[in-house]
């Protein structure tokens, strides 16, 4: 059975988007810099940083799949995330079902939720659509079994993703058939990880069929070594860490997280989804604080994951005009606890005997995976419909990007497709990438707005010099905060901090109401050693911007840099809260110890240290 429902739970407001495009790549260890597939920028996306930490009871739209054994609930507005998987006979929740919906700054675009199963397509990090709606339709297997099909056009890699979730009658496993399509005449670097959050108890053990792993401890380069069996008990780890299991090629890939009784979640897949990972926050104060920040008190969790590559620092080359697919299974594992908690080889052998055979089910999908939907359930974005209208996406029966999904974000580009000038607007139209937009913009009469977008296309393709030329030309047509900000970002990336600060200071005067621009201006002034100017700007802000956590953090930094310890102390001792604190960001504890004596205990509310 499949149904559309609402669930009511404590949630922050849905995260709003910034008007400022992301002109840098993702954050990766130094050892991964320049590796195949790492994007130069995260264009065409902008940040999703418009959220806070005020929870209220809200109704969230969900799709629910049920059979006799399982009930699966999907949050459609948050990337189609599998939010809950309940084993009906026992009433056991197999996933970490977060008691709150609280965005935090962990995804590529910022806003991210802990809990459930998150689908990740794009590049290293939590995918750009993790806090965006997906299209959802009902399809059917040949025997009438309902399928929840979710799909979207991922705009950075320009790929189509299709997720078909179903529960055959009597099946103890939720099955999810995943398909990625590359419709373009060129190779595309591809990254995929299914990110599974499960409850962490003192006796939870993570088991996978591997004797070696790639280990990353958030303070050094990734290293390959024999997997230490004691590391499989995540509640004993002091610091946050990743282990990417090196599963032998001939071994079916799977991973499980089982408690002291030998029960828990088993995740298995067909062979293409080769990689498996374990992540834990650790038991140190910083790890506990992060878990409380994401899920509230008393809700510890860990993550087990399945991916296309060995580690999350790798991308695989997907050939032109090709598609990749695989089948994933999620269900309850019940094993002998003595074996599960015995030596590593015994534990692996015990769980391996529970792993379902999936190849026949996967092969059978060829008979239905292309069938058109029988009903629309939920609407995603209009970007796929725009690309189809432009001739960049073929018409696909299984994933119909229909014209009635086009909205205000696509309207300027529809005008361009129709042969009209691209309408100028402030803030500018949402960016687009690739063909045919490159050629259409080249043919467009040059004005400040079209030149701004030409520069964004060049920047996304790695040509920063051409981007600079386009943005400087845009400024000559009209001085806008948008071109100034983009040029300032190029200056920052080139370590030209004074020039970046000058440009952003002017941009701020042109758009003082854009708080993200205010924050970037303050950061640039501080990088340039101009703390006095930063404090003067802060003193001129309205009360709404002045109260924002990120602005208050920058005020504290400026006060310390200017030697105004009284002002810094007033901010720090007032329990500074920064809703968009970045995972791995050391700002709070560094500010505390820049003001307080080194022997002063760091308050738990400020301890987000990953190591």
Set out the fold topology.
Layout: E1 2-11, E2 56-66, E3 70-75, E4 81-87, E5 92-93, E6 104-107, E7 110-112, E8 117-121, E9 135-140, E10 146-154, E11 159-166, E12 173-182, E13 188-190, E14 192-199, E15 205-207, E16 212-216, E17 223-226, E18 241-245, E19 254-258, E20 263-269, E21 275-280, H1 285-295, E22 301-307, E23 316-318, E24 322-334, H2 337-340, H3 344-352, H4 359-364, E25 375-378, H5 383-389, H6 411-417, H7 437-443, H8 448-460, H9 464-477, H10 481-493, H11 497-510, H12 515-527, H13 531-540, H14 543-546, H15 549-561, H16 565-572, H17 587-595
Antiparallel strand pairs: 1-2, 2-3, 3-4, 4-5, 6-7, 8-14, 9-10, 9-25, 10-11, 11-12, 12-24, 13-23, 14-22, 15-19, 16-17, 16-18, 18-21, 19-20, 20-24, 21-22
Helix pairs in contact: 8-9, 9-10, 10-11, 11-12, 12-13, 12-15, 13-15, 15-16, 15-17
């Amino acid at each position: 059975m499949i149904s559309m429902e609402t669930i009511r739970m404590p949630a922050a407001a849905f995260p709003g988007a910034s008007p400022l495009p992301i002109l840098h790549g993702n954050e990766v260890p130094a050892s991964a810099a320049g590796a195949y597939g790492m994007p130069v920028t995260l264009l065409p996306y902008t940040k999703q940083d418009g959220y806070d930490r005020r929870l209220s009871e809200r109704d969230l739209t969900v799709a629910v799949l049920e059979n006799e054994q399982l009930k699966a609930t999907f949050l459609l507005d948050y990337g189609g995330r599998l939010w809950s998987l309940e084993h009906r006979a026992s009433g056991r929740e197999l996933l970490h079902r977060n008691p709150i919906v609280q965005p935090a700054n962990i995804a590529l675009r910022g806003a991210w939720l802990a809990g459930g199963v998150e689908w990740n397509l794009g590049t290293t990090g939590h995918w750009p659509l993790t806090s965006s709606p997906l299209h959802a339709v009902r399809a059917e297997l040949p025997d009438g079994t309902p399928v929840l099909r979710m799909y979207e056009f991922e705009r950075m890699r320009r790929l189509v993703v299709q997720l078909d979730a179903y529960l055959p009658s009597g099946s103890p496993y939720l099955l999810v058939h995943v398909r990625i399509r590359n419709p373009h005449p060129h190779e595309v670097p591809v990254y995929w990880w299914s990110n599974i959050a499960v409850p962490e108890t003192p006796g939870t053990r993570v088991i996978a069929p591997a004797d070696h792993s790639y280990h990353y401890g958030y303070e050094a380069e990734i290293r390959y070594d024999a997997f230490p069996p004691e590391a499989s008990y995540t509640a004993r780890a002091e610091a946050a860490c990743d282990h990417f299991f090196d599963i032998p090629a001939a071994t079916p890939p799977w991973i499980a997280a089982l408690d002291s009784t030998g029960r828990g979640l088993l995740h298995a897949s067909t062979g293409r989804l080769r990689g498996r990972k374990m992540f834990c926050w650790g038991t140190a104060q910083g790890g506990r604080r992060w878990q409380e920040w994401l899920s509230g008190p008393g809700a510890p969790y860990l993550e087990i994951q399945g991916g296309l590559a060995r580690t999350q620092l790798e991308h695989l080359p997907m050939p032109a005009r090709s598609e990749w697919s695989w089948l994933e299974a999620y269900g309850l594992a019940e094993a002998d606890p003595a074996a599960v908690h015995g030596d590593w080889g015994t534990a692996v052998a015990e769980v391996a005997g529970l792993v379902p055979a999936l190849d026949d089910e996967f092969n059978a999908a060829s008979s239905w995976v292309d069938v058109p939907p029988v009903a629309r359930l939920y609407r995603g974005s209009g970007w796929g419909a725009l690309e189809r209208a432009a001739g960049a996406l073929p018409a696909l029966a299984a994933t119909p990007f229909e014209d009635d999904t086009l909205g205000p974000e696509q309207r300027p580009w529809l005008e361009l497709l129709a042969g009209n000038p691209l309408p100028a607007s402030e803030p500018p139209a949402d960016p687009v990438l690739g063909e045919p937009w490159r050629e259409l913009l080249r043919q467009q009469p040059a004005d400040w707005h079209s030149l701004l977008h030409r520069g964004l296309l060049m920047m996304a393709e790695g040509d920063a010099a051409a981007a600079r030329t386009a943005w400087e030309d845009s400024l000559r047509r009209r001085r806008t905060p948008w071109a100034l900000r983009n040029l300032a970002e190029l200056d920052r990336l080139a370590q030209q901090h004074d020039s970046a600060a000058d440009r952003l200071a002017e941009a701020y005067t042109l758009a003082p109401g854009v708080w993200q621009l205010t924050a970037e201006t303050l950061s640039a002034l501080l990088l340039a050693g101009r703390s006095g100017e930063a404090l003067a700007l802060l003193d001129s802000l309205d009360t709404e911007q002045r109260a924002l956590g990120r602005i208050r953090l920058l005020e504290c930094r400026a006060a310390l840099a200017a030697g105004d310890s009284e002002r810094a102390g007033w901010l720090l001792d007032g329990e500074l809260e920064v809703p968009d604190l970045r995972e791995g960001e050391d700002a709070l504890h560094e500010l505390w110890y820049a003001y307080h004596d080194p022997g002063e205990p760091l308050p738990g509310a400020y301890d987000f240290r990953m190591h």
